[in-house]
User: Which sequence fits this backbone?
């Protein structure tokens, strides 16, 4: 389709987007036509390395042949079915997923989107504890449903939404590169956590129910909480009878080099986790997962969550195949190898590129923070935008993330099936763009 025709359709028929939002200017971006593995192609036939894995749903690679086969076969036998009856794809998914879960996690229920699963996980936590208040990181993002998940997406700016859900409040993100208390880990003794819990206690409007967080905060700037943080948080939660809920939308199923992102953090077992994104291998399915004990307590209090399409055989078969692919094709191992290759390339680049302030993340969820000055850590928003533009022109897709008010973090999420040659090509495109940005006046601007 011609670009002019696409613009006409967007300006006439599509719902308008806020220009400054991450959807803003979509009509000027590539119009995608097909994809395979790590590559996507636009309607002009131009090839791009997709270091964003679609909207993170293609972490197993676009059109994984096993996914295409299962989806095609299931469509021809049983595509949609009532959620008031069992179907074999649904049953198999409960069992396959259950068998790979670290104990005591065991029981699953299925929904459609990541936001759905967060809403259901919060509700589960509330029903299981009888509490109400939920706390989350101030740089966290947990979804886009208008009420609860946006209220808990503190990084998304709650002001954009009309009404905020009661009993939701934030605690400080433990961001050691930019410590909110100007302390240093580990001598800080998790001062941010102590301060946060004191404030949380003051903010609670009722008996608190739980905490929700990502094992690596993805949209909030690829922030990895420091070693020991989550065990210290767990103690604080236990003292208050609160549950620990991990949003594994972005970190689950191999992406961090572990089967689940929480396994990055030693001695931490969450009470509830959610998975979505590449769980469906490209189709929308999510899950809420918990232990026997928590499930039973919640159900005794009337807990229930589903959607019309929540147990569709098509989605469940896709979910089961994606879980099998993750395990049988050792996606976690692949993610670890990609991490080493990218981090080695970035370590070389940072000898020459002063703009690189920090490199962090695990597996195929990595962040490169650009600064105009390594000492002062001044966010290099203008240079980051220039780098992203040049990369896109040269065939590399990724997203820019930031803290509240900045846009200076390059987030790299290549599919776990990316080959060494694809990673090297992506790094070469990035290096060229960083060199150009460093030379331009934009590098000096915030
Ligand atoms: C960590 C996290 N949780 C939840 C969601 C919401 O998922 P969905 O867009 O499928 O509703 C997202 C979306 O990007 C996410 O990154």
Assistant:
């Amino acid at each position: 389709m011609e670009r002019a025709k696409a613009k006409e359709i967007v300006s006439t028929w599509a719902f308008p987007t806020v220009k400054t939002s991450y959807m803003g200017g979509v009509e000027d971006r590539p119009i995608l036509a097909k994809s395979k593995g790590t590559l996507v192609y636009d309607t002009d036939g131009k090839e791009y390395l997709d270091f964003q894995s679609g909207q993170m749903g293609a972490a197993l690679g676009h059109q994984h042949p096993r996914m295409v086969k299962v989806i095609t076969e299931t469509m021809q036998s049983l595509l949609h079915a009532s959620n008031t009856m069992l179907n074999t794809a649904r049953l198999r998914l409960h069992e396959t997923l259950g068998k790979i879960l670290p104990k005591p996690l065991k029981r699953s229920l299925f929904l459609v989107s990541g936001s759905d699963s967060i809403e259901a996980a919060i509700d589960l936590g509330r029903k299981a504890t009888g509490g109400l208040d939920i706390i989350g990181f101030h740089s966290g993002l947990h979804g886009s449903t208008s009420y609860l998940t946006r209220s808990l997406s503190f990084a998304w700016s709650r002001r954009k939404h009309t009404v905020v859900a009661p009993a939701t409040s934030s605690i400080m993100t433990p961001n050691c590169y930019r410590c909110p208390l100007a302390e240093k880990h580990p001598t800080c003794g998790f001062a941010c956590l102590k301060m946060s819990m004191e404030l949380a206690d003051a903010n609670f409007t009722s008996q608190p129910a739980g905490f929700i967080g990502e094992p690596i905060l993805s949209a909030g700037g690829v922030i990895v909480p420091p070693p020991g943080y989550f065990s210290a948080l767990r103690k604080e939660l236990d003292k208050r009878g609160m549950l620990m809920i991990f949003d594994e939308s972005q970190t689950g199923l191999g992406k961090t080099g572990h089967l689940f992102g929480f396994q990055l953090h030693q001695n931490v077992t969450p009470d509830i986790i959610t998975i979505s994104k590449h769980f469906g291998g490209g189709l929308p399915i999510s899950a809420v997962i918990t232990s026997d004990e928590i499930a039973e307590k919640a159900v005794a209090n009337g807990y229930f969550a589903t959607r019309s399409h929540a147990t569709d055989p098509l989605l469940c078969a896709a979910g089961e195949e994606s879980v099998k692919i993750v395990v049988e094709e050792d996606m976690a191992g692949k993610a670890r190898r990609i991490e080493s290759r990218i981090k080695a390339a970035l370590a070389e680049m940072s000898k020459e590129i002063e703009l690189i302030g920090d490199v962090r993340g695990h597996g195929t969820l990595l962040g490169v923070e650009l600064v105009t000055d390594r000492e002062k850590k001044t966010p290099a928003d203008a240079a980051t935008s220039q780098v992203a533009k040049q990369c896109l022109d040269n065939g590399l897709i990724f997203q820019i993330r930031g803290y509240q008010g900045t846009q200076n973090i390059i987030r790299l999420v290549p599919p776990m099936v990316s080959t060494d040659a694809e990673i090297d090509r992506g790094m070469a495109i990035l290096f060229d763009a960083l060199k150009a940005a460093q030379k331009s006046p934009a590098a000096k601007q915030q």
